[in-house]
Amino acid sequence: MTRTLLTGNAAAAWGARLAEADYVPAFPITPQTEIIELLAEWMQRGAMAGRIVMLESEHSMLTAAGAAAATGVRVFTATSSQGLLYAMEMLYTVAGWRVPLVLVNVSRGLAAPITLEPDHNDVLAVRDSGFLQFHCATCQEALDGVLLAYRLAEDARVRLPVMVNMDGFYLSFTREPVRLPEPEQVRRFLPPFDPETLYFRAGAPRSQGVAVLGGAQYSYFRYEAHLASLGALRVFEEAAAEFARLFGRSYAPLETFHTADAEFAFVMLGAFATKAKQAVLRLREAGWRIGLVRPRLLRPFPAQALVEALGGLRGIAVIDQNLSTGMGGVLCSEIGAALLRAGARPVVAGYVGGLGGRDIPVEEFFEMARETKAAAEAGRCPPTRLLYTEEELRQTRALQAIAMAE
Amino acid sequence: MFRVRFHGRGGQGVKTASRVLGTALFHAGFEVQDAPRYGAERRGAPIFAYVRADRQPIFERGVIVRPDLVVVVDDTLLTLPAAAVLQGIAPHTLLLVHSAQPAEALRAKLKAPGQLVTIAPREVAATGLQPQGAMMTVGAAARLLGVVPRQALESAAGEELAALPAKLRQRSLALTLDGFDGVEAPGGPVRELPAEPAEDYDRPRWIALPFEDARIASPTIYGAGTSMLSKTGLWRVQRPVIDRERCRRCVWVCGTYCPDNAIAADAGGYPVIDYDHCKGCMICLVNCPSHAIAAVVESQAREAAAAGDAP
């Protein structure tokens, strides 16, 4: 097992290569393009078997991905932001076909205004599509996540497409040490895909994704997909246990960091959670009992594990790198609902930050911890805070003056 | 933890240089994180890259606000506010500048609070980009950290430059090692800044964002021609210069081909280049039927202008 420096994009491409994906429908978009460039290069020089095809849009790309998966081959694809949303219709459709494939989404904020830098509104916009969602915080997770995703997607008890999400720039273009597993070992974890009933062929006609009217059949298929997704939590745990045995790296649906004796915790998704770890260590040096909880799986939602990790705490600061306009942070409301239904009542302080790649410096984590503690002492959940500083508004004002928007 | 920030221009090999340092530190047994930072810029635009290295897992990401070492591959960026080269530098920060100017003079000019070390350029390439400068500078940066063995740097440069043609690779490798051998820091190697304590920190000056109506709060630029305020001419590393003797005043040719609309006709019908916005792409030079446009290295053109000679 070689340990080498890889970007998140290269790590994801290695995941597809080691999974021996047969077919890669592709379309370029920043900050994802490096993934398909690498796969194209490897396939061109014969380092990777399989076929990469450039489609004319992400909508066609997802259609091709779903159709190919229905024939029983192993499919990999990747996109980002606007591209993911352009494919929106087909995300729901291929999930409804109940075909397994793995899509890497490299998160990037959505237009308008247009940006290249990350937040999670793209991946959360497709939250309810039927795709399972695995969220990465390191480049290693981007590689391992792809392997785990295939196990999950192809399991007969699941058979749903899986999305592996990583943050643009902060992972996609950032190199850090990654252990590259040996192909032989990966084959033991992920044997060739057994498509069972997936053999869509011209010579064996069948109707796929049929029309149903009246609601009863529609509901049946939707409910079944939901049940398969819920059941995927257990399948994930099984796969992760085997992964840990083979590769020595453990992936619970939730990552917990210094939570054993914690009174408080930060809760967040993705690569910015790495910054929260730094804050946790510094705060602990100053006497705080604080930790971090980071969901790796968002769909299926690990509600029970979240309640177990957070239910007994005095206060939690949920930091959403997304904004549901007119409501607040998506993760905060989902966690709030899970805690309420379980009868657990830590004080929940909601924060929205990191939109369009806005930095969250360590001082802001310290301040969020301080506010959450004060809220816990007062016994009241504070209103959601949108992280923004005086200096940021001053900079915006200077640009507005140029734009004559005054 | 070592926090190193690289500054240069697109096309100068800054990303490659930062990767050479990242890989060298990785070979020296460090945990490493390296990344380039760019948006929609192109050749010649200021870009930066960063490298972090620690003996334990790194729990930081993104921009480096408090660098221990700032590596400047192109000294024309020092006076360019948009490049933000001096952002967050503190008394412990070591500034390494690829420049022919003497270190003490440069330090005084910049009012740098800490140590400043220069490494002199070997030559200026005709393209004005000096891509070899990045390699020499990264060699020097590795030396200044005081923790990278020469052998680790050599093998890192070999790996990161593997895709180059053999001759260029060998030359780049030699320059990297020259940079390593040819630098000294009288004030000692780069010092790591201790972590900020959680008891005593600068509290963020958060505000409750006021509601503003959509006329203000929509991403609309109401003023016309505001892109004139963005001096993209600062990206230029080569300057097109028109020879009036040869020019046949067919300004519709160069003026039409110019992708930035930076060429207009003067009263006499001669083309005039708007150097505030010419990015130096040289498309005008390629298309000029009478070969009346020459490419001059921008830094030399500026020096000549400062000395009173016409560009």
Describe this structure in words.
With 406 residues, chain A is of the alpha/beta class. Chain A has 14 helices and 15 strands. In chain A, strands 9-11-10-13-14-15 form a six-stranded mixed β-sheet, sandwiched between helices. In chain A, strands 4-5-7-6-12 form a five-stranded mixed β-sheet, sandwiched between helices. A two-stranded antiparallel ribbon of chain A has the order 1-8. The N and C termini of chain A lie far apart (59 Å). In chain B, strands 2-3-1-4-5-6 form a six-stranded mixed β-sheet, with helices on both faces. A two-stranded antiparallel sheet of chain B has the order 7-10. A two-stranded antiparallel sheet of chain B has the order 8-9. In chain B, strand 5, helix 2 and strand 6 form a beta-alpha-beta unit. The interface between A and B is large, with 47 and 43 residues.
Task: Using brief descriptors, characterize the structure shown.
heterodimer, A: alpha/beta, Rossmann fold, 2 domains, five-stranded mixed beta sheet, B: 311 residues, alpha/beta, two-stranded antiparallel ribbon, 8 helices, globular
Short structural description:
The complex is a heterodimer of chains A (406) and B (311). Chain A is an alpha/beta fold and 406 residues long. In chain A, 43% of the residues lie in helices and 17% in strands.
